[in-house]
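Work package 3, deliverable 3.1, input record:
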Amino acid sequence: MQSLNVNNLTFEYKEHSSIFQNVNIAFPLHRFNLLVGPSGSGKSTLLKIIAGLYPQFGGQLITGDVTITDVNLTTKKHQVAMLFQNPNQQFTMNTPRNELIFVLENLQVDPTQMDAKIDAALAFVDCAELANRNFNTLSGGEKQKVALAVIVAMDSPVILLDEPFASVDPTAREYLLTKLTKLRDEHHKTIILAEHDLHGYQSIADQVFQINPGANNIVPLEQTARENLFNQFKSTSSTATISLPADIDEPVISLINVELKQQDKPLLKQAEFSFFKDKITLITGENGIGKSTLFNAIIKLMPYQGQITLNDRDIKSIKQKKLARQVGLVFQDAEDQFLSITVTEEIELSKKHRITNYFTDQLIAESLANLNLAKHLDQVVYSLSDGQKKKLQILLMLISGQPILLLDEPLKGLDISSLATVLALIKKSSQKQHQSIIMISHQLTKLAGWVDYHVSFEHQRLTYQEVL
Amino acid sequence: MNASMKLLLVLLISLEVSFTHSLSANLLLISASLIYLLIHRTSLKAIMFLALVPFLPALGLFVTIYYFSPGQDLHFAWVLFTRMYVYVTVGASFTLTSTPLELALSLEQNWHLPSKFAYGTLAAFNMLPKIKSAIVTIRTAGLMRGVVLSWWSPQLYFKAILVALNWSENLAQAMISHGFVEDQPRTFYRQIKVTGLDYGFLLGILVMIQLPIWLLP
């Protein structure tokens, strides 16, 4: 069978510590290939090497090349299209239509054919209505849809996707997955997708490749290993029961007649709602429905109508500086949280102004070891992998110790073993430090056991749910 | 009018006005620009803003010349006062009626600006609203860790520069993965041409303003 081959690949970021050593892989063409492995194992790196972005943008290629049916990829342009993890920095132009024009111009498409191609690409992912909206007004999921439309328009034979659904809700995720299968089946595309959250892939993926960081190699999984892997993600297909708030629960953040809008689009209209003290509350809801905006309103970064109270006090009467010591926000983008340079410096900064003394030096050291960060203490935070950044970010904010902690997608980009460690850390810290936790997550695998309450955000309303 | 030709015209007018002192010509240019802006349906609010912004520097010039210069030349004081407004209104006739996209496309297609610069700048321009919110985010992140980052704090700008560097690298990767190859020919969806009419306007307007500039006081 014809394949996309990675030959004798040795690649390193730092001298003498290679991330891949003499790796050989053959991704079969016209198939859906799934690339799995723990965070930091080099999934993004491999995809960027195939896309030709590395070593141009980082790292050193010691040996090796990438070929499709014996033709070297560096000599043949426009064979590979890539969709990135971060939906925010993948567009040059201001609107989806202009971006698509830019892309087609790059590919030297005849201008008279462009309109048809653009309309077809937008229609393929059902987002014709977004064509002339400014990117700054689109949600993460909407941007990923547009990014897929760009890939459809580019019509490259190979499509690489680097955790494309990290900020996408389950409905949109399922939708995009069916579109990807359609690209494979009807347009004969070769798809290589790197992912942590594997549910929904069992029936779609033709081949699963696992990166083993210790062994420095990448192997296709056999049938049994493959099934074991997917079984870890089975639990979400059944719904778990979750209790509703009890009368004795003490409200900590309350919304009274709150109205939230974004560019005149109403997001939330809520007469009365409360989050409760010392509980872990999960908020779920579709992309762009306003979950992050709600968090921003609670920390006064977003204007709203009505009243939001914190322990019965209107937050409008609390100074931003004081409020920040009461309510902490774990940003969706981990890098937003960082203020220093190395991991150690970040930890020191969090320790300096922490509110409780729960995190002793010993506990911090233990937590770093549990999160597999102990070896990265002197590393520049921006050079960590996305999963590592996320884990560090959560630890930093837990050390800070605000009585209320808002977590926006804290599980984004985490592999399944880190997931349990992070959730355990959050749970324990919140119990010991008496923290009320409110978290947004699209990733629901294994979550039911960790949260106290589940709130769904739909039809511009928040409501407590009995199932997850 | 073609965006880059318009920019050239605006620059030439501003340059010439800097070396002349005809009050009537200045007033004429201000009125012509205002009429042009009104034709392009510029909001009255924007025009009021244009009137307000240069007022203090213009007044400063006026006062300096009229009260503190040895000659106390009232005519020259007015020339300098109106000159400020010429810069602002003529400049606005360009900025408020053309988009960065139009200018970038014109510079790329008509003046052979390397497309790397044209689209790189455009991408950076589209990022501007995000830079503002990034600064707010950095300050909030600081407050949540107990660090107050004031507007003059070096830490705030250090972090902002890091963010910008990171964005620029991601954007460069995104451009490449969206098919952009440096120095490779591209097709153009919107064909931007410099027509005879554009040259006509440029030369015609330049010639027309020479009369008042050199003949009227």
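Residues 251-465 of chain A form a domain with the Rossmann fold fold (CATH 3.40.50.300).
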